[in-house]
Write a structure and sequence with these properties.
Number of strands: 8
Structural class: alpha/beta
CATH superfamily: P-loop containing nucleotide triphosphate hydrolases
Shape: globular
CATH topology: Rossmann fold
Oligomer: single chain
Order of helices and strands: EEEHEHHHHEHEHEEH
Strand order of the largest sheet: 4-5-6-3-7-8
CATH architecture: 3-Layer(aba) Sandwich
Largest sheet: 6 strands, mixed
Number of domains: 1
Length: 216
């Protein structure tokens, strides 16, 4: 993918500016962590970024964006709806095809939810729903991944599994994270947001938890 250049992005709610102006460059091959306290503007920045690159991005929103009445398989399959003709998508809705089952099942196996393949999302726990949303983005195979707290409902080992899969599947990503240790381990650049502004932007190798904690 080409580099993404964001210039003077702003956002306002209720007449009050909550983000920006922010300028940010995202280079191919970068794994960027957005860090900062809740309400700092991370989700708003991700949403604005998605508006700029939606044609080449996979998104894991904080609210997950799953269809509760559909199965895990169908929610994951939705990651590639645009890649297939409508008749084929309808066919998969009625009776999942072998090709897609053979692609999606191993992905769910690695995420620890292959036994939920045909279960409706509404029957899942919060962590299982989160992994379903991540599986959908991984299956999409876009140029860039944007994820808003994709491991917030997962315990330590599972969080590492998911972050490892994300790093493996996507060469370029921007991920909002609360967990500083995960940000330092799986991302090579840290962008800290405070009060709607970029307060920190540096390579992970030059940072320690003590450099990031003041943002919280």
């Amino acid at each position: 993918m080409d580099a993404v250049h964001l210039r003077n992005l702003t956002a306002a709610y209720g007449g009050q500016q909550v983000l920006g102006p922010i300028s940010l460059d995202i280079r191919p091959g970068e794994h960027i962590a957005l860090v900062g306290r809740s309400g700092a503007g991370k989700s708003t920045l991700l949403n604005l970024l998605y508006e700029q690159v939606r044609d080449r991005a996979a998104l894991v929103p904080q609210e997950q964006g799953l269809v509760q009445s559909l199965s895990v398989f169908h929610n994951v399959y939705m990651g590639r709806l645009s890649a297939n003709p409508r008749w084929y998508n309808i066919l998969n809705l009625v009776w999942p095809r072998r090709r897609e089952l053979e692609e999606i099942s191993p992905l769910l196996e690695r995420l620890g939810i292959v036994d939920k393949l045909r279960k409706p999302v509404e029957a899942l726990s919060g962590g299982q729903k989160q992994r379903t949303a991540v599986a959908r983005a991984l299956y999409q195979k876009a140029a860039i991944l944007l994820a808003d707290e994709p491991v917030s409902a997962l315990d330590g080992p599972l969080a590492h599994v998911v972050m490892g899969l994300i790093s493996e599947a996507y060469a370029t990503s921007v991920i909002a994270l609360h967990d500083i240790d995960l940000a330092l381990r799986y991302c090579d650049r840290i962008v800290g947001i405070r009060d709607g502004q970029i307060a920190l932007d540096d390579a992970t190798r030059r940072l320690s938890p003590a450099d990031i904690l003041p943002l919280y």
